[in-house]
From TrEMBL:
Keywords assigned by UniProt, alphabetized: Hydrolase, Metal-binding, Nucleotide metabolism, Zinc
Official protein name in the record: Adenine deaminase
Keyword Lipoprotein on entry: no
Positions contributing to Zn(2+) binding: 16, 18, 196, 277
Residues carrying the site annotation Important for catalytic activity: 220
């Protein structure tokens, strides 16, 4: 209980958060009503009952379906603002938010509506909640690289609002090597690069993300435990892994949180930290992830402090601000 209090007191960052994954069942219903959309569920409670996933794909099927209720700039603002208010309540002072433009543009929502709505909430959070933020645009890896390249073109007028690019969606069978051209363009434009790798996919995908996409961070990356060589390399190069404990259990990467390698990775010197991934679907926001780790893995205080420190060290905050936090 003392450690859980400490977690709440400490300022924290969140570096792996899909804004569409913060869409709560209640908001799905509210937005469906506002936009005149009929849902195949009678209530938010009935929808929430479907959140019993077998793997990444069974989650993604529901996640993409729910995003259909997001239509206007105001919807994206409301979604993002709701998440940022949660951050304020949990003393999360800096966030790096993923969004999936293709899941919106592919159903006719203009890129501008999406990015402007999200950005307006981020600006308001800076001024009203003192939360700093950066926006990371993810490419959907189950779609061809040409679609990612087209999205990269659509993003050009908005690059002043976008700090990085990422790679997400169905991992197995969609290796990082398929996206070398679009990542090269993003890097050349000065954006940070990250990729989901080693969540369900093999450790080799982590290596590909580093060697072929030149990523600055790996999202998830837990299957790195399958390669001692890669573990040593990632430790030496100081590549961070944005780990998401509750997500990994809910998507059956591990049977139970007690099996999770978070603390052994930390003790091996890897730069890992705790994140919530898709909190509306996986059982809670950042503090709930810390609480679950505390209950299942019994970290000591030094380990908790290190995880929080890593969340700042691995962030894309300006170095000067980072130093002030460490
Ligand atoms: N999109 C949203 N959450 C994701 C996850 N955990 N893995 C891959 N793609 C995602
Ligand atoms: Zn993710």
């Amino acid at each position: 209980a003392e450690l859980k209090q400490l977690v709440r007191r400490l300022p924290k960052t969140e570096l792996h958060l899909h804004i569409e994954g913060s869409l709560e069942p209640d908001m799905v219903f509210a937005l469906a009503e506002r936009n005149g959309i009929s849902l195949p569920y009678a209530s938010a409670a009935e929808l929430a009952q479907k959140y019993d996933f077998e793997n990444l794909q069974s989650f993604l099927d529901l996640y993409y379906q729910a995003t259909d209720v997001l239509q206007t700039e105001e919807d994206f603002f409301d979604l993002t603002w709701a998440y940022l208010q949660r951050c304020a309540a949990e003393n999360v002072v800096h966030v790096e938010i993923f969004f999936d433009p293709q899941s919106h543009t592919d159903r006719g929502i203009p890129f501008a509506e999406v990015v402007q709505g999200i950005d307006r909430a981020l600006q308001q959070a800076q001024s009203e909640l003192a939360i700093s933020s950066q926006l990371i645009m993810c490419f959907l890896r189950h779609l061809p690289e040409d679609s990612a390249l087209e999205t990269w073109q659509q993003a050009q007028p908005w690059l002043h609002l976008i700090h990085g690019v990422g790679l997400d969606s169905s991992e197995s069978g969609f290796p990082p090597e398929l996206f070398q051209r679009v990542f090269a363009q993003a890097r050349a434009a000065g954006l940070k690069c990250v990729a989901h790798a080693g969540e369900e996919g093999p450790a080799d995908y982590i290596e590909q993300a580093l060697d072929l996409l030149a990523v600055d961070r790996i999202d998830h990356g837990v299957r790195i435990t399958e390669s001692d060589t890669l573990m040593r390399r990632v430790a030496i190069e100081g590549i961070a892994l944005t780990v998401c404990p509750l997500s990994n259990v809910r998507l059956c990467v591990y049977d139970q949180l007690a099996d999770h390698p978070l603390l052994s990775l930390l003790d091996d010197g890897l730069q890992v930290m705790i994140n919530s991934d898709d909190p509306a679907y996986f059982g809670g926001y950042l503090c709930a992830n810390y609480d679950a780790v505390i209950d299942a893995l019994a970290p000591n205080q030094a380990q908790i402090v290190q995880l929080v420190k890593n969340s700042f060290a691995a962030s894309f905050m300006p170095e000067v601000e980072k130093l002030a936090r460490l």
